[in-house]
Amino acid sequence: MAKTLVHREAEPVRVPFLRGILTRSIQEAGLEFEDAYGVASQIREVLREEDEVTTEQIRALVLPLLEPFGEGVQARYRQRRSAVPTVLVRHEDGHEVPFSRGRHRVALAPCGLSLDQRGRIATHVHERLTRERVTEITSGDLGLLTYRVLEEEEGKEVAHRYAVWEEFRHTDRPLLLLVGGATGAGKSTITTELSLRLDIVRAQSTDMLREVMRMMIPARLLPVLHVSSFHAWEAIPANSRCSEDHDTQLANGYLTQLELISVACEAVFQRALHERVSLILEGVHVHPTLLDAIPKGTDAIIVTVMLGVLNPESLKRRLRGRGKKVPGRRAKRYLKHFEEIWRLQSFLLSEADKAGVPIVTDEDVDEASQEVLRIVLEELGRHFEGKPSKVFA
Questions:
Q1: How far apart, in whole angstroms, are the C-alpha atoms of residue 293 and residue 178?
Q2: H/E segment holding residue 359
Q3: One domain, residues 99 and 74
Q4: Do 371 and 325 reside in the same domain of the chain?
Q5: Taking the CA of residue 342 as centre, how many other CA atoms within 13 Å lie in the half-sphere pointing to its CB?
Q6: How far apart are CA 258 and CA 207, in angstroms?
Q7: Cα–Cα distance, 35 to 66 (Å, whole number)
């Protein structure tokens, strides 16, 4: 079937109807992605047999479908498509881009706000630009306006976090974020969320580093490398652990494996620092002593956090969930060794506590991610002033 062509008013061009473009347009009116995508999908079905349609006709079809989401959404969609001029944001290098509430929500992510809060702030910033009939603004002035809206709507602390992040973002200092925790603590999930919110494209798992090392060094030469961290102690010669209690054996096996993997971690750190890029390293092998693998004298901002699940039944549920989402992760094996996993977590949390490493135990992924973001911004605040007059000059 041929694609429906869209005729844009006042332009002698016709372009294919794209559901993704319409989805983003509806999101700009204030809907979340799933709702906007649903509306755009309905429009696509209506237009399936149409050869050509105008943007005005699409607008007329969309507006009734927005009615269940409130008059405000309808008004913003109608306004955006008609009387509101495009606001161009001029950056320091001279290039200009249209202001987008979607992009602005992303820019607010490091502040530690929820998606709804970020959406509201982005909308208020856009409304002020519209009310004052602004058609062009520098990125610095936009940042200052955003800072003021944050201060009014969310308070001085959140506004300060935004200014601190913007100040850091305009430097070339890398951020090294280390996220530790036992099996099932949520390290991978939270790292993915943090990568998106902090716009960090380089993330590395210590499990992956261990897997690479296993390919290079056979089990007969280094057996402790080829077992899971929670029973690495079994690969240590029996005569060297016969007088130790089980918790000590568990800790020593883990630390022995950590010592090996820290060599690969050091290489990852060196590469990131050499290239001046930010990095998130996550895994069970993120231990306070791993900081020794970071080259001395670096100007990188280094943040370490430890994740934990303090309720054993909650941790078991997570381990079962891993098996459903990723069958290859063998939930049954984890549950079989739950006692070792639980003891290893106790050891890791104790080690983090002794070293002064922040511990995050919130079971909600979004809340835990926001807490880690606050920890990151607190550390950045020790290195940057975050004065609006300086940051947004």
A1: 12
A2: strand 359-360
A3: no
A4: yes
A5: 13
A6: 11
A7: 9
Structure tokens at 339: 């006692």
Q: Indicate if the pLDDT at residue 145 is higher than 90.
A: yes
**Strand partners of residue 15:** 6
Same structural domain, 161 and 185? no
Q: How far apart are CA 369 and CA 86, in angstroms?
A: 34
CB-hemisphere CA count at 13 Å for 197?
Answer: 28
348 and 254 within one domain: yes
Strands (E), 166-291: 175-180, 203-205, 279-283
Strand 203-205 vs strand 52-54: parallel, antiparallel, or unpaired?
A: unpaired
327 backbone φψ class: left, alpha, beta (φ>0; ψ -120 to 50): alpha
85 phi, psi to nearest 5 deg:
-75, 160
Give me the pLDDT at residue 330, please: 66
Binning the chain into helix, strand and coil, the percentages to the nearest 5 are 60, 10, 30
252 and 381 fall within a common domain: yes
pLDDT digits (tens, 9 = 90+) for 166-210: 999 999 999 999 999 999 999 999 999 999 899 999 999 999 999
Considering the domain architecture, whether residues 45 and 131 belong to the same structural domain is answered as: no
Which residues, in sequence order, are CB contacts of 5 under 8 Å at separation 6+?
Answer: 14, 15, 16, 17, 51, 52, 53
Structure tokens at 225: 């490398």
Asked if the structure places residue 327 within a domain, the reply is yes
Query: Phi and psi dihedrals of 322, rounded to 5?
Result: -60, -40
| Residue linked to tokens 């990095």 | 279
